[in-house]
Amino acid sequence: KFMSNNNPGHSLVKYNTPILVSTSKGGKKKSVKELPPLKESGATSNEDLLNEILPPREYTQNGQLWIQYVSSTPATRVDVTNLKKELDTEIDKRQAIGTGICPLREELYTQ
Q1: What is the pLDDT of residues 61-100, one digit of tens each?
Q2: Contact 23/32 with Cβ under 8 angstroms?
Q3: Which of 2, 15, 19, 78 has its CA 20 to 30 A from that of 67?
């Protein structure tokens, strides 16, 4: 999901540290770092697939364009346990319905 003009929202997906792509001063955009295409950057095919399934998110903050890729670091057992607790907390906090069709639950599970 691409986001613009604000910080990215809370997500259950783990992201890498944001990368500054460009900055804007006086209406002019100045490129800070040229991001090479994934095929030429030496990225593995697993990272290419991950970026296709969960595209990086972009957002602007203080006139600067940031991009954030999904982390390709494998999850540990502790990570999965913590994620399950966080998911359960979000479901309780949003008062999602436990059975049947529930848009709140669907939104959380699509992450």
Answers
A1: 888 888 989 888 888 999 899 988 988 888 888 888 777 7
A2: yes
A3: 78
The pTM of this model reads: 0.56
**Cα gap 39→47, rounded to integer Å:** 10
What type of residue sits at position 50? L
Q: Which two tokens stand for residue 67?
A: 């991009």
- For residue 65, give the nearest of 111, 19, 96, 13 by alpha carbon: 19
